[in-house]
């Protein structure tokens, strides 16, 4: 058990590039967080955009569904360099789990262009110098993400890549059940597409994690989630992870 905990802790520190320094803290304020975010995640060696609170949350959710026997696989929609999915696979490996898969869903071409009339905040952000020049719309190739899995010895038959826009790949994805559905889809339409295609596959007792729930300056993600929950009559409370991320556990 100690070795399992040590492996998972080391995996976290490598994926977040926090072995010798702290990660950006979203609670510090937008300007400081953005400065630290750029330094840590864009110019640094991190494999994931998740700060420690969010990767701790992901570990807690995974280990909880394993302990309670909640059926299903694990999926992240919007993966950047693949770090969160590498962590999912690493936690399964650390616990000797061989009958669950990790699905890695992304265009691997960056973010889609939002409709400027329907989603003006997103369109403005999408065209900004920060998004275009600094982050390149978070585009990372499939081959680069696969190589990142390979570096950790975690590219195997339990990892499946879903390449393409969510509207095209997720409705027909070969997924029977999900225990963990993690969304880092950024925009309204992408978020709604993921929930529409996959929520019914989330097992009772499984988790839905919304990375951008607390964002309101540049995205309508929260609006999409709120509308989906309203239309589906979902009353489970949103549980705060940090200032920007929340989740709920499916109860029915």
Description:
The protein is an alpha/beta fold. The protein has one domain (2-249): Rossmann fold. Helix content is 43%, strand content 14%. The protein is built from 10 helices and 7 strands. A 7-stranded mixed β-sheet has the order 3-2-1-4-5-7-6, sandwiched between helices. The protein is globular.
Strand order, sheet with most strands = 3-2-1-4-5-7-6
**Proper CATH architecture:** 3-Layer(aba) Sandwich
Assign the structural class, choosing from mainly alpha, mainly beta, alpha/beta, alpha+beta, or little secondary structure: alpha/beta
Count every helix, treating DSSP H or I runs of 4 or more residues as helices: 10
Query: How much helical structure, as a percent, in the residues?
Result: 40-55%
Q: For the residues shown, what is the average pLDDT?
A: 93
Radius of gyration: 17 Å
Task: Work out the count of structural domains.
Answer: 1
CATH topology: Rossmann fold
Give the DSSP E fraction (strand runs of 2 or more residues): 5-15%
Count of distinct strands = 7
CATH domain class? Alpha Beta
């Amino acid at each position: 058990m100690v070795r399992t905990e040590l492996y998972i802790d080391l995996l976290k520190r490598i994926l977040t590039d926090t072995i010798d320094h702290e990660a950006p803290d979203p609670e510090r304020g937008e300007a400081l967080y953005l400065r630290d975010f750029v330094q840590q995640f864009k110019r640094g060696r991190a494999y994931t955009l998740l700060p420690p609170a969010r990767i701790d949350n992901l570990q807690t959710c995974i280990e909880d569904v394993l302990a309670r026997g909640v059926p299903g696989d694990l999926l992240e929609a919007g993966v950047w360099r693949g770090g969160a999915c590498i962590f999912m696979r690493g936690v399964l490996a650390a616990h000797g789990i061989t009958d669950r898969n990790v699905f890695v869903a992304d265009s691997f071409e960056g973010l889609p262009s939002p409709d400027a009339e329907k989603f003006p905040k997103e369109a403005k952000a999408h065209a900004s110098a920060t998004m275009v020049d600094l982050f390149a719309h978070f585009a990372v190739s499939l081959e680069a993400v696969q190589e990142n899995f390979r570096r950790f010895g975690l590219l195997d038959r339990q990892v499946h890549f879903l390449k393409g826009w969510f509207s095209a790949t997720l409705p027909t994805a070969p997924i029977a059940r999900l225990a963990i559905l993690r969304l880092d889809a950024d925009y309204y339409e992408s978020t709604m597409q993921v929930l529409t295609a996959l929520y019914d596959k989330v097992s009772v007792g499984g988790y839905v994690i919304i990375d951008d729930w607390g964002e309101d300056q540049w995205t309508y993600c929260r609006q999409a989630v709120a509308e989906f929950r309203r239309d589906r009559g979902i009353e489970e409370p949103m549980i705060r992870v940090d200032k920007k991320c929340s989740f709920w556990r499916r109860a029915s």
